[in-house]
Amino acid sequence: MIIRLTQKLAAKLGESPTNALPRDPDIFSDWTGHLFTANRTQYVILVNSATLYTVLMYGRGITDGGIFIDRLLSTLRDYMTDDDLPFLFHRFIVPRSATVSFSKTGDRSLLGSINDHVAIAKSYLIEMDESPFTVAGSLNSTPMKYLHYRTAREELLNRSVGTLES
Predict the structure, then answer these.
(1) How many domains does the chain have?
(2) Do the domain assignments include residue 166?
(3) Which one, out of 53, 101, 120, 159, has a CA that is 20 to 30 A from the CA of 23?
(4) What is the percentage of the chain residues whose pLDDT exceeds 90?
(5) 35 touches 43 (CB < 8 A)
(6) Domain extent at residue 118
(7) How far is CA 128 from the centre of its chain?
(8) Over pLDDT 70: what percentage of the chain?
(9) Is residue 127 part of a domain?
(10) Could you give the C-alpha distances from 41 to 48, 70, 126, 131, in angstroms and in order?
(11) pLDDT, tens digit, for every residue of 73-97?
């Protein structure tokens, strides 16, 4: 599994990836993470690099790569279970999480979509006082230009059908 880190998130984790790995053709193996602040609270947004499927978690207590990966997998499991997608998590993400490589981000278009997600997330977190869990649900049901105006959840399900058939 590849987790692409923005400079802010890499600094928080004490990681310093030196290059941007090529995109993994397996959609479940390539994720991009970013750290941002809303109302003096740190949040980590993790986005599937191919589908923009998003989870959002508190940044507090995440001090290194190991804690980050544990928290990420736990949050992703909880969110995908609540989103009626536990089979995708257990069948495709768990096996790929045995080996994790940190990488630089490299994809400007993807970073633009993540920045859009962060702007929306801040609005929900600050103005509507929503939980990170609820905000991620909203992000996954918002049509995105990067996805040709499909939602991240739709894109994840559509792209996973090919993986299930092969």
Answers:
(1) 1
(2) no
(3) 120
(4) 75
(5) yes
(6) 2-158
(7) 22
(8) 97
(9) yes
(10) 23, 20, 10, 12
(11) 999 999 999 999 999 999 999 999 9
> Rounded to an integer, what is the distance from CA 68 to the centroid of its chain?
12
CA 57 to each of CA 17, 18, 26, 41, 64: distance values in angstroms, whole numbers, following the listed order = 22, 25, 24, 11, 15
d(CA 91, CA 111) in angstroms, rounded, equals 28
Q: Using DSSP, state whether 101 is helix, strand or coil.
A: strand
Tokens at 77, concatenated: 């499991």
In a domain, 164, yes or no: no
Indicate the residue type of 127: E
pLDDT at 10: 95
What pLDDT, in 10s, does the model give residues 121-152?
999 999 999 999 999 999 999 898 888 899 99
Tokens 């490299």 map to which residue? 106
CA distance 42 to 35: 7
16 assigned to some structural domain:
yes
Q: What CATH code is carried by the domain that includes residue 101?
A: 3.30.420
What DSSP letter does each residue of 37-86 carry, written as one string?
A: EETTEEEEEEEETTT--EEEEE-TT--SHHHHHHHHHHHHHHHHHHTT-H
Please measure the distance between the N-terminal and C-terminal CA atoms of the chain and give it in whole angstroms. 19
Residues 63 and 136: their CA atoms lie apart, in Å, by 22
In the DSSP assignment, the letter for residue 123 is: I
